[in-house]
Design goal:
Structural class: alpha+beta
Shape: elongated
Order of helices and strands: EEEEEEEEEEHEHEEEH
Distance between the termini: 49 Å
Oligomer: single chain
Largest sheet: 5 strands, antiparallel
Strand order of the largest sheet: 4-3-2-1-5
Number of domains: 2
Number of helices: 3
Number of strands: 14
Strand content: 35-45%
Length: 207
């Protein structure tokens, strides 16, 4: 970033409680950037993470004259017509700040899942037994009873779909892991449950 660049507040650092603000860089130093924000008469000393350089492709212009910059990390902004979640090039209207915070949490969970390429996977009964034993050995909250397999034929198949990232086990904070929805596919849909597993691809967990 350089002098003269147009920037927006990032929603981080001292801008965390700010609504979206547009400004222009007036001076750049090694550790600081100075910005003159719209409707102010002074240079504001900013940290690098507190400002976002304008990308015109991520700027939405509305007919009522409102501009919303959708770049940067997810954050909540308030405009004349209500609250929005914006970031990552996206814009989502929400009914309240709390709803916005809930949506950001869900989006971040899905990003964590995508980082390790976690996708729905079809598994056999033997593979589901392996995964369930892994969940139990890790002392995760959600798993199947150890002898669940006695209720299913050996040719049964299941689909395991990631639904969220989880950060606690037995009420204690722990490493992130993924909660899956487990559904029987064949010969019928006789099982639907949830299963917590480590945060990596299922096929890499199976031997």
């Amino acid at each position: 970033m350089k002098k003269g660049d147009v920037v927006y507040s990032s929603g981080q650092g001292k801008t965390e409680k700010w609504n979206q603000v547009k400004g222009i860089i007036t001076k750049v130093e090694k550790d600081k950037i100075y910005v003159k924000w719209d409707n102010t008469d002074f240079e504001d000393e900013m940290e690098h993470n507190e400002i976002l350089e304008l990308n015109p492709n991520q700027l939405l212009r509305f007919s009522d004259g409102v501009d919303i910059f959708t770049g940067g990390e997810y954050r909540i902004i308030e405009e004349k017509d209500g609250f929005y979640v914006t970031g990552k090039g996206e814009l989502h209207p929400v009914n309240s700040r709390q709803e916005g915070e809930d949506i950001i949490h869900q989006m971040k969970e899905m990003l964590e899942i995508k980082k390790v390429n976690i996708l729905p996977v079809n598994v056999s009964l033997d593979e589901l037994i392996q995964l369930n034993n892994m969940s139990i050995s890790n002392n995760y909250n959600r798993n199947l009873i150890e002898d669940f397999h006695l209720n299913f034929g050996k040719d049964s198949t299941f689909i395991i779909r990631p639904i969220l990232t989880h950060y606690h086990k037995q009420g204690v904070p722990c490493e992130p892991h993924v909660r899956y929805l487990v559904t029987q596919l064949f010969p019928n849909r006789g099982l639907q449950s949830v299963l917590d597993l480590p945060n990596r691809e299922i096929r890499k967990m199976l031997r």
